[in-house]
Write a structure and sequence with these properties.
This is Malate dehydrogenase. One of its GO terms (molecular function) is L-malate dehydrogenase (NAD+) activity. 45% of the residues lie in helices and 16% in strands. The strands form three sheets. A six-stranded parallel β-sheet has the order 3-2-1-4-5-6, with helices on both faces. It has a three-stranded antiparallel β-sheet with strand order 9-10-11. Strands 7-8 form a two-stranded antiparallel ribbon. 47% of the residues are buried. α5 links the parallel β5 and β6. α4 packs parallel to α5. By secondary structure, the protein is α/β, with parallel strands linked by helices. The structure holds nicotinamide-adenine-dinucleotide and (2S)-2-hydroxybutanedioic acid (LMR).
Length: 343
């Protein structure tokens, strides 16, 4: 039995993501949770002729506990999206609390589930989940993933566009490392499975890198106040979830970039730290998946000087984002203890 749960399932990402998970033959149960509308979304999806049994829950009557009971994989797209002029960090104030509460539910109900965090700012929300799990003594770094797949999907599409053949976009593989916001998004185009033409000018390369880094802004601008990427994110989230499920079923050799705790692989993390010149508690790199989650964090490998400059620019921003997430949980614990001191 494989129960997939979506937290934030009635939202712009949640609904199409739930649809794609309902269509995934590896999913036998689909649990949907949101603060609104999940009964309707669940009723709608339940008429689709695929095996997954669908149930929708709301917060009253222990809805979060019920939806998480027996979950194998939990995907979190709950929270507010950006409007034009906002950065992902501007979402922290609202989304940090939402993610913390949902993580508490997971830690106390299904701590062994694979947790896939979509809610922004991912660079900080993933550390929040880790800290909550630590607080409950259930943190397994191999099972926690920040979903950066949309950056990978964008890189594949944009490179295929440059190559003048969109039919290649499914085949083009470009590792995108670092994190998931602006300069922390580092596409390693020199490692693209489909190299760019040798005539490709430096300015064109810079434009391409910038488009991958700020692809989210392109969508936010086009939606003009109606939110950020939802459909492409649902596609990316479902692709990533599917890779986890295939790896858990025993498929070998699945390697995909994801923002993970470096504690998931001590050896891989040591090599990465050497490359970065400092340790970061979380980093997105190519990650090999297995039945228990992260098997190996791959080093960056051979990259160009220009890519090294991008990595350097990402590091301080990432370090700050990680610290913000960790401090948020520490402060929340302190505040709770001040309210109810331990005897
Ligand atoms: N990681 C990525 O690449 C990526 C890509 C796109 C969007 N995002 C992020 O995903 C998040 C969701 O985006 P969206 O466009 O789907 O937003 P949305 O507003 O359309 O949907 C969010 C849903 O979360 C629900 N929600 C709010 N508080 C909740 C709670 N406590 N418990 C459960 N559900 C709750 C809302 O009711 C809503 O249905 C945003 O933070 C956005 O920035 C991340
Ligand atoms: O840009 C956003 O705020 C949403 C998402 O992180 C994206 O990359 O599209």
């Amino acid at each position: 039995m494989v129960k997939a749960v979506v937290l934030g399932a009635a939202g712009g990402i949640g609904q199409p993501l739930a649809l794609l998970l309902k269509a995934n033959p590896l999913v036998t149960e689909l649990g949907l949770f949101d603060i609104v509308n999940t009964p309707g979304v669940a009723a709608d999806l339940s008429h689709i002729s695929t095996p997954a049994k669908v149930e929708g829950y709301l917060p009253p009557d222990d809805g979060l506990k019920k939806v998480l009971a027996g979950a194998s994989i939990v995907v979190i797209p709950a929270g507010v999206p950006r409007k034009p002029g906002m950065t992902r960090d501007d979402l922290f104030k609202i989304n940090a609390g939402i993610v913390k509460d949902l993580a508490t539910g997971i830690a106390t109900t299904c701590p062994k589930a694979f947790v896939l965090v979509i809610s922004n700012p991912v660079n900080s929300t993933v550390p929040i989940v880790a800290e909550v799990f630590k607080q409950h003594g259930v943190f397994d770094p191999k099972r926690l993933f920040g979903v950066t797949t949309l950056d990978v999907v964008r890189a594949s599409t944009f490179v295929a566009e440059v190559l003048g053949d969109l039919s290649l976009s499914k085949e083009v593989v470009v590792p995108v490392v670092g994190g998931h916001s602006g300069v922390t998004i580092v596409p390693l185009l020199s490692q693209s499975s489909h190299p760019l033409p040798s005539s490709f000018a430096k300015e064109s390369l810079d434009t391409l890198v910038n488009r991958i880094q700020f692809g989210g802004d392109e969508v936010v601008k086009a939606k003009n106040g109606a939110g950020s990427a939802t459909l492409s994110m649902a596609y990316a989230g479902a692709e990533f979830a599917s890779k986890i499920l295939r790896a858990v079923k025993g498929e070998k050799g699945i390697v995909v970039p994801s923002y993970v705790s470096v504690a998931a692989d001590a050896e891989g993390s040591a090599a990465l730290t050497k490359e970065l010149g400092q340790e970061l508690a979380f980093f997105s790199s190519n990650v090999e998946l297995g039945t228990e989650g992260v098997v190996k964090i791959h080093p960056l490998g051979k990259i160009t000087e220009a890519e090294q400059t991008l990595v350097k620019a990402a590091i301080p921003e990432l370090a700050k984002n990680i610290e913000t997430g960790i401090n948020f949980v520490a402060e929340a614990i302190k505040a709770a203890e001040a309210k109810e001191p331990r005897l």
